[in-house]
Amino acid sequence: MSVYILAIESSCDDTSAAVIQDRKILANFIANQAIHKDFGGVVPELASRAHQQNIIPVIHKALANANISKKQLNAVAFTNGPGLLGSLLVGASFAKTFSLGLGIPLIPVNHMEAHILAHFIEDARQQEPPSFPFLCLTVSGGHTQVMLVKDYFDMELIGQTIDDAAGETFDKAAKIMGLPYPGGPLIDQYAAKGDSRAFRFPYPSVPGLDFSFSGLKTSILYFLRDRLKEDPDFIEKNKYDLSASIQHTIVGILMKQLKKASRETGIRQIAIAGGVSANSGLRQALLDEQEKGDWKVFIPPFEYCTDNAAMIAITGYFKYLKKDFSSLDISPFTRY
Question: What are the chain's domains?
Answer without folding.
Answer: 4-119+305-321 (3.30.420.40), 129-299 (3.30.420.40)
